[in-house]
Task: structure prediction
Amino acid sequence: MMSEESPSKEGYYVYVARLASRELYFGRARCVKDRLEELNAGEGNPRIRGRGHLILLRSWKVADMGTALSTICLLQNASLDLIETALRDADLGLGELMERVLGDRPMTNCIRCGAVRPPFGSRDLSQGAQ
Result:
């Protein structure tokens, strides 16, 4: 995990958190700590209000909001079993997570929004767990 004490002035973080119901929640923020505090206070995303406290599992820095949004969209449509298994690896980088859960299909598109998976090994996805 990483320290989210101060907001990122450049780029965003993609994060995975667990709801009290044991469901996974994927989000993006410039400062993960502040965003989780907001969500846990019942502010922000109405889809998760009243569903319990969010616990951060992992976060990774990405270059921009577009990369964050397409990554989240693809993860939301991936196999949760594969994501859960991959997250057991404490040193897992975002690029490696995407490879494990989406396989070797480099042009995988999100079924909901059409987002194309960001390239693996790029500077945006190779920074590892932060």
Observations:
- The beta strands are 12-18, 24-29, 55-62.
